[in-house]
Amino acid sequence: MAEILSDDEISENAPAEWQQDGDEIVRVYEFEEYLDGVAFVTEVAEIADEEFHHPEIQVRFDEVEVRLTSHEAGGVTDQDIEMAGRFDDVR
Asked: Entry's HAMAP family (predicted)?
């Protein structure tokens, strides 16, 4: 099982736009059009399914909120940090 990162490790290693919220890291991506956000979610979902590490995703009209945590470990792990970077690469 992966080890949970400390708050300092999360702060040091999470991509710039990601913020810690309890035992998750969170980012809100903004879009001009609703369907642009939906297309982004589709790409993120493909990565998540490939890695079998699924985020919580909330789609709103002009933004998409993505939350990552490693449920089996009980907090944020290196895998969450890696996934956050991969999701940012999609954007």
From this structure: Pterin_4_alpha
